[in-house]
Amino acid sequence: MADQRKDALVWCEIPVSDFDKGLAYYGRVLGCELQVNREGPDPMGVFPYSEPGISGHIYPGAPASGGHGPTVHLAVSVLEEALERVKAAGGEVLPGIVPMPFGRFAYTVDPDGNSIGLFQAAGD
Q: Is the pTM of this model over 0.70?
């Protein structure tokens, strides 16, 4: 496959109804303070990780898919090509590509209704 990456998983995100309560809960569960990052459209409480590493975060809101639960983000080389493959494989591509300082991503929904983000790193 042309889009095989060394690490397929890029990050995961867990929606919370109350950001401050979510920070307190996950901080207590993990025994550490989550670092708050406000670079994106929503604040994120970032789980600890080592460099280079894979992590995740909590955010206020709900998955873009309209479902419940976490969203995993998978690495792709060319975002638009991967989005076409999602459609061809029976998935749904949600509107909008989200730019970030270190790349860009789009939300998709797999045939089982899971929220899956596809991420293209800057420079890819």
A: yes
